[in-house]
Amino acid sequence: MNHALATTLSTGTIDAYINSAYQIPILTLEEERDLAIRLRDHNDMEAARRLVLSHLRFVIRIARGYLGYGLPLPDLIQEGSIGLMKAVRRFEPDVGVRLVSFAVHWIRAEIHEYILRNWRIVKVATTKAQRKLFFNLRSTKKRLGWFTRQEVEDVALELGVKPATVLEMEARLANYDLAFDGYDDDEENGISAPSAYLPDMRLEPSMLLERADSESWEHDRLIAALATLDQRSQTILQARWLAEKKQTLHELAEQFGVSAERIRQIEKVALQKLKAQLEAA
C-alpha cells in the first residue's frame, strides 16, 4: 500500500481513502501476469506494490460486507489489505486464474480473524464449526426474536450442524457484555459490576496448588504412556511433538533410513496407542 493511501486510512478520512483507491486503474490480464512474474522471479517490490494497489477496491467491497459486526470500516479495510498482501506474495501466475479470484479467500480470512479477535461476543466461537455457524447465523436469521423449532432445524440442516449447536450460538449472540469495573454513572442502588463480587482466583493458594498437582499428574501419565511404546515410536513422538525444536517427517526418515510416509504411519499408530493408554489411565 503506498504511503499516501496508508496515511489517508490511518488519519480517519475513509471517504478520501476509498475515492483514492477507486482512482487506481484495474490491471489487464497481461499486466497482472507480467507483474506477478516479476515479483515471483525477481522479488520486484514495485511490481508487488502495483498488484496490491490495483486490487484495493476489491478489499473495500469485501470489507463493507462485514459492517454488520459493529467494527470500524477503516480497520476492516486494513485487515483485508493484509490478506491481500499475503495473497499477492503467494500468487502463482502460471496457474491460470486472476489474482482477485485467488485473493478473495485471503482477504476474507484476515477479516474473519480480526472480527474473532475484537468483537466481544464472538470470542465464544472457539471451534471451527462454531466460527462457521457464527458467520452464517447472522445472515441466515431473517427476523428479530428467537428462532422457531422449524427455523432451528432448517438452519442446522443448511449449515451442517446439530440443532443444539444452533440454539447455543443463538443464545450467545443474544448476550451482552457487562463491564467488569462498572461505569462512572452507576447509581448507588444499581446493579453491581462483577469486580464488586467476583474474587480473583488466579493467585489463590489452593488453586495454585491444585493446578500444579494436576500438571504433575498429567505429566506422569504421559511419561508412563510413552514408556509402553517401542523405542522407535517414542523417539519419533518426542521429536515430532515434545522437542523444543521439532523435526520434520523427512528429517526423521533420513535418520531412520525409511520413507517419510513410513514415519507418518508409525507416528499415527503411536499416537493412537498413546491416546488409548491415556484414556485407560
From TrEMBL:
MF annotations from Gene Ontology: DNA binding; sigma factor activity
Matching InterPro entries: RNA_pol_sigma-70_dom, RNA_pol_sigma70, RNA_pol_sigma70_r2, RNA_pol_sigma70_r4, RNA_pol_sigma_r2, RNA_pol_sigma_r3/r4-like, RNA_pol_sigma_RpoH_proteobac, Sigma-70_Factor
Pfam families: Sigma70_r2, Sigma70_r4
SUPFAM superfamilies referenced in this protein's UniProt entry, alphabetically: Sigma2 domain of RNA polymerase sigma factors (SSF88946), Sigma3 and sigma4 domains of RNA polymerase sigma factors (SSF88659)
UniProt domain RNA polymerase sigma-70: residue ranges: 75-88, 248-274
Residues that span the membrane, as ranges: none
Family: Belongs to the sigma-70 factor family. RpoH subfamily.
This protein's name: RNA polymerase sigma factor RpoH
Annotated organism of origin: Thiospirillum jenense
